[in-house]
Amino acid sequence: MISYAPLWKTMAEQRVTTYTLRVKHGMSHATVQRLQADLPVSTHTLDKLCAILHCSLSDVAVYVPNQT
C-alpha cells in the first residue's frame, strides 16, 4: 500500500497545513481526506503536492508492503 506519512512530515517541516492546501492551492477537501486516509490519489495530485512543497515524490509518499 502507499502511505502518505512522509507528506505530513514534509508539511510540518514547511509549516504547510491542510487548510493551506485547500484554500491557497485549490486542492479539494475530498482529496485532502483521501490523503489523510492513505487512499489512492492521482499522479496529478502527487505532482501538484511536489510542486507546492518543492520536494521529491519520496517526501510525499512511500510504498509499504502489505502484511499478509
Provide a descriptive summary of the structure in words.
- There is one protein chain.
- The chain is mostly helical and 68 residues long.
- 51% of the residues lie in helices and 6% in strands.
- It is built from four helices and two strands.
- Strands 1-2 form a two-stranded antiparallel ribbon.
- The chain starts with a strand and ends in a 5-residue tail after the last strand.
- The model has no long low-confidence stretch (mean pLDDT 96).
**Strand proportion:** 5-15%
Widest β-sheet, arrangement of strands: 1-2
What's the story with the biggest beta sheet? 2 strands, antiparallel
The helix/strand order is: EHHHHE
Structural class: mainly alpha
Number of helices: 4
**Low-pLDDT residue intervals, each spanning 5 or more residues:** none
What is the total number of structural domains?
1
**CA(first)-CA(last) distance:** 12 Å
Look at the structure and give the CATH class.
Answer: Mainly Alpha
Overall form: globular
Give the helices and strands, then pairings:
Elements: E1 2-3, H1 5-14, H2 18-23, H3 29-36, H4 43-53, E2 62-63
Antiparallel strand pairs: 1-2
Provide a concise account of the structure shown:
By secondary structure, the chain is mainly alpha-helical. It is 51% helix and 6% strand.
Features:
68 residues, mainly alpha, 434 Repressor (Amino-terminal Domain), two-stranded antiparallel sheet, 4 helices, 2 strands, 51% helix, 6% strand
